[in-house]
Design a protein that fits this description.
Blueprint (H helix, E strand, L loop, with lengths): L2 H15 L10 H10 L5 H13 L5 H6 L2 H7 L6 H17 L2 H4 L5 H9 L6 H10 L10 H9 L9 H11 L4 H17 L17 H6 L7
Length: about 220
């Protein structure tokens, strides 16, 4: 995948969709909670879980930890895998509190904080990088399932690359600009959720003309 490819996709998506104002949250801890809850589920389900936590005042670290695990599980049930996510949320929140809360991590270097996050059971690379980018405004590129699906269909990824290999492509092709990485990820989420689904809606896709999959599907059943 060339620098030109990476930049062209961004330019086309930004021209089609405009700024996305992502990540939707009112506090840094809400972003962190959302980054865990969004694992293996659609964002609309995460919004329902977050609303449930907000309703009982649990979108704050100490308050979340004060909830009984069974009560927490019931609150986040809409996000799916709720028993697993209870443990992951509590693991992340406990580590956060141990290190002085959201502000306690702000002075850490990006490398040190990424290592710390990845050392928390249940926090993978996508979750860690979402926190780094959207909470701590570090120029790291978040790679999610949408990113892989879109760029594989564009035949700009083989599909077997590691997380870091994919992230490095974007980080090397683009300036180390947090706002740009934020916007690019958000645009890919928009494209992936609306058009580049498992069954693609190619007729709606702004990058269809660049996409071998889209050209092959033109006029076919995937567009219905």
């Amino acid at each position: 995948m060339s620098v030109a490819d990476v930049r062209t996709v961004f330019d086309v998506l930004y021209g089609a969709y405009g700024p996305q104002h992502w990540w939707p949250a009112t506090t840094d801890f809400e972003v962190m909670a959302g980054a865990v809850l969004t694992q293996n589920t659609a964002w609309r389900n995460v919004e329902r879980a977050l609303a449930n936590l907000r309703a009982v005042g649990a979108l704050e670290p100490a308050a979340l930890m004060a909830l009984e695990p069974a009560h927490l599980a019931e609150r986040i049930r809409p996000a799916g895998y709720y028993n697993i996510k209870v443990t992951r949320l509590r693991n992340l929140t406990a580590a956060l509190l141990d290190d002085g809360g959201v502000e306690g991590w702000r002075s850490w270097s990006t490398a040190a904080l990424r290592q710390r996050l990845l050392g928390i059971k249940g926090v993978g690379e996508e979750t860690a990088d979402s926190i780094l980018l959207y909470v701590y405004h570090r120029p790291v590129f978040v790679v999610d399932a949408y990113t892989r699906r879109i760029f594989a269909r564009l035949e700009l990824l083989r599909g077997d690359e590691t997380y870091r290999q994919v992230a490095a492509v974007f980080e090397h092709a683009l300036p180390a600009d947090t706002a740009l990485f934020n916007e690019y990820h958000a645009l890919l989420v928009r494209l992936g959720s609306e058009c580049c689904r498992p069954r693609p809606r190619c007729s709606l896709c702004p990058v269809c003309v660049m996409c071998p999959t889209g050209r092959a599907q033109a006029g076919g059943s995937a567009e219905r």
